[in-house]
Design a protein that fits this description.
It is an enzyme of class 2 (transferase). Helix content is 43%, strand content 22%. The chain has twelve helices and 19 strands.
């Protein structure tokens, strides 16, 4: 059966009118490609055009994009019930074919593949001159190239149109009718021409959609760059501004919400809730995961490239996460630079202070010794009035305090190097606490000792190590103004011994802990601390080749561990 002859309906007037109608159909299809609607809506619009123009009973469209297969079905009896499905290579074995009904034969599917790839001579039966397929009676199998091909379905006649999707991918449109012989050959040739226009429209729509998504992506990234350039703005304000810019960059912006989780803190758009579908990208800073960016849809939408999301949106969310990571790296590098510059300036100031402290301490030592000596001599004189005795005792106490401050300054300035002898740390703790127990009792502090047995002697300066113990204990006492528990322990671990001072005081924040060994840093009110105690202790321990480890949390007390090497006297 062939359809090559001229039809009597092709009279010049009728032919021109028919051509004009088909041209109008082509123009409507091209205009639809410019509307910017999602793929499924666009395909539905095209199928409605074919359904209304041909007056047939059903239009089916199949598109092979290589890794995905789209199938749409629109029936005249239920035009609102548009069937649109997407299959992937993982969902079916038909790598090059066109998935259709479940009961569709492999032979028919292979026939469609060969048809789209132009493997049939258009001079064969059932073909029009421009390659469309006309099936006047679907109840009978078609015999093509010696093969019997049966078309599945309930319909009686059909026209099969092919169109290009890309250079090597194609699509098929089925126009189906319940009437036998419904389609005419000359009309099917026109439909095939319109199908080619559809291929152009699809390519145009893809290009426009890619351009729109690229514009949205670049606009979003430009806005983020503008936000990130504001160095004076706080991080919380920056990330909240970033998260507000994300939903408009997604296809379904009206149902999109976004959030950023960074270091445990969450920034989200207003009314954010975990949606039915989400897209997420991890935030990495120096190759370490610190959080994520997430965009969610609170309503269901048709499946696209990644669920209801586009592949361009995957690229965008990855770029956003990457830009956030770069911004954090840049901000932290700037903060580290500022911190190092501050340390450098501070070290320079400390060097100057150290030189001044050494000179001042040396100049004050002699007159202070005279004041203390003469005051003590005056106290030994007989018949001194009681009031004078009290005043002289105040002088002695003030001079002793001044001498202690000068000693700290000399230690801080490294004027006095360690004078190492054999020291037993347990004995040093026992002797040192003799003068501190009364102060602990007065402050309501319970003292407990846990001293290791058979602790070896170390080479150390006993005066300086005593100073370390006193400074750590005094620091613990000041941390427990309402009383508490003070535990002092010694421990041997391999080639080191440890002196541990642990309190149940207020504890410290990470910010305070980072500065406790900085000279003159103190959290005490003015006049109640020099800020040198822990700095001096740190300097002494470092001069002995040891370290001080600190563990502390607000409300959970503090633990200072002085770690010293076990070295015999003379092996320095």
């Amino acid at each position: 059966m062939t359809y090559k002859g001229k039809d009597h309906s092709r009279r010049s007037g009728y032919g021109r009118k028919l051509a004009e109608e088909f041209c109008a159909l082509s123009r409507r299809i091209l205009r639809a490609a410019n509307l910017g609607v999602p793929r499924n809506e666009f395909l539905k619009m095209i199928m409605e055009e074919f359904l209304n123009f041909s007056k047939c009973d059903e239009v089916e469209m199949r598109i092979n994009e290589g890794i995905r297969y789209y199938r749409g079905v629109l029936n005249r009896s239920s035009p609102d019930n548009f069937l649109f499905t997407i299959a992937t290579r993982n969902d079916c074995d038909l790598v090059e074919n066109f998935p259709g009904e479940d009961n569709e034969s492999v032979e028919f599917n292979e026939f469609l593949r060969d048809l789209t790839q132009g493997r049939y001579d258009t001079r064969l039966p059932y073909f029009t001159t421009n390659g469309a397929l006309l099936i006047p009676d679907m109840s009978e199998p078609m015999k093509i190239n010696g093969k019997l091909i049966r078309v599945p379905g309930q319909y009686r006649s059909a026209a099969v149109l092919t169109f290009p999707v890309s250079e090597d991918r194609h699509g098929i449109i089925f126009l189906k009718s319940l009437e036998c012989g419904y389609f005419q050959a000359y009309e099917v040739e026109f439909y095939q021409g319109v199908a080619q226009t559809l291929g152009v429209a699809l390519a145009d729509r893809r290009a426009q959609a890619a351009l729109r998504e690229r514009i949205k992506e670049l606009t979003c990234l430009y806005e983020l760059d503008r936000i990130f350039s504001k160095d004076e703005v706080e991080l919380d304000e920056i990330f909240q501004a970033v998260v507000e810019k994300l939903p408009p960059a997604w296809l379904y912006s009206d149902i999109a919400s976004a959030c950023i989780k960074l270091d445990g803190k969450v920034y989200a758009t207003q009314g954010y809730v975990e949606g039915l579908h989400s897209q997420m990208a991890k935030i990495r800073v120096h190759n370490r995961e610190r959080g994520f960016v997430k965009v969610t849809y609170r309503e269901t939408r048709p499946v696209l490239d990644e669920g209801p999301f586009l592949k361009e949106e995957r690229n965008l969310i990855e770029a956003v996460a990457r830009e956030i990571g770069i911004f954090i790296e840049r901000r932290e590098a700037k903060q580290e630079k500022a911190r190092l510059e501050h340390q450098l300036r501070h070290a320079d100031r400390l060097a100057t202070i150290g030189q001044l402290a050494a000179g001042v301490a040396h100049e004050l030592n002699e007159p202070l010794a005279n004041i203390l000596g003469f005051a003590q001599l005056v106290l030994k004189l007989p018949e001194i009035p009681k009031q004078a005795v009290k005043d002289i005792e105040r002088i002695v106490r003030a001079a002793l305090h001044a001498r202690e401050v000068i000693n700290k300054l000399m230690l801080f300035a490294r004027v006095r190097p360690p004078q190492q002898v054999a020291v037993n740390l347990n004995s040093l703790v026992t002797d040192g606490l003799y003068f501190l127990r009364s102060r602990c009792a007065k402050a309501g502090i319970e003292v407990s000792l846990d001293l290791a047995q058979d602790l070896p002697e170390i080479a150390a300066d006993p005066t300086q190590m005593h100073q370390v113990l006193v400074n750590l204990v005094v620091n613990a006492i000041q941390a427990m103004p309402s009383g508490g528990k003070l535990k002092i322990a010694t421990v041997r671990k391999d080639a080191v011994i440890s002196l541990i001072v642990e309190d149940t005081g207020a504890g410290m924040t990470e910010e305070v802990k980072a500065q406790i060994f900085v000279p003159f840093f103190t959290t005490k009110p003015v006049g109640e601390g020099t800020g040198l105690g822990l700095s001096v202790a740190h300097g002494i321990v470092s001069a002995h080749g040891g370290t001080i480890n600190v563990e502390s949390e607000p409300g959970k007390g503090s633990r200072f561990e002085v770690v010293l090497p076990i070295r015999p006297l003379g092996n320095r």
